[in-house]
What we know:
The chain is of the alpha/beta class. A six-stranded mixed β-sheet has the order 1-4-3-5-2-6. It is built from five helices and six strands, in the order αβαβαβββαβα.
Amino acid sequence: xxxxxxxxxxxxxxxxxxxxxxxxxxxxxxxxxxxxxxxxxxxxxxxxxxxxxxxxxxxxxxxxxxxxxxxxxxxxxxxxxxxxxxxxxxxxxxxxxxxxxxxxxxxxxxxxxxxxxxxxxxxxxxxxxxxxxxxxxxxxxxxxxxxxxxxxxxxxxxxxxxxxxxxxxxxxxxxxxxxxxxxxxx
Length: 186
């Protein structure tokens, strides 16, 4: 009985943190629950900023269509368990759950079990995300810290700092280097 109550309590805390942070659950945008089962130990120390190198979006309908395509690509082509990103943010400022706060994703080799990723939907080599998307990322990080899902003294990096990739794009990388907690990784 005690074990059951602990599971119910943990489930309610998980749902409360995600709803408080304004994250659209994967079940809502994809029509099914996440297939990921490995539990991410929180609070995480590392936040990885990425981009999806896809068309941008500014409505739920377009954003959801793009991330459903990303999910299919990750599952079918890359043979991931599910979408790899922890969170995705559209130009409309909406945050979409991928692996989320409590499941290990597949976003940054060698860091998946100790970091979350925030992926901006679009290509940010020559431009930056919309002000709404940037604010949503800042709010998501702040909510993660307040909910004890991200460590207060977390490090923030661009994906390219940890992997051989151009992500999050030159313009977005330049911008995040001005954000609090950005850390130079060698």
